[in-house]
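=== RUN LOG ===
request id: a7f3
mode: sequence -> structure
chains: 1
length: 100
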Amino acid sequence: MSTTIQTTNQISTETETCLPTWQDIEKSIIEVLRAGNFYNKDRNIGFMDYYKKHLDELRQSEDQEQYIIDKARSLLPNEEIYDTKLKAFSNSYYKIFYYG
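=== RESULT ===
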């Protein structure tokens, strides 16, 4: 009688990175606008107007995938600007939603 040792398949610890599609970006913008509507924010000023313009530009572009790449590069050309904008956005959204 022979015995065999079975090895279990190891689960890969590598995670696949998948870039967001233009549909994902569109859904995210719509969710931000819905949140603003929920909190009765004015649709024509501030962040609501900002995101409405982005949504319109995205929907009107000929190649949406290329649009989001170009827009990301123009808004966040390097890591220092990314960190600065992330901090500013998080502070302003906290003030908007928690302090009216």
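=== NOTES ===
Residues 22-99 form one domain.
The longest helix spans residues 79-99.
=== END ===
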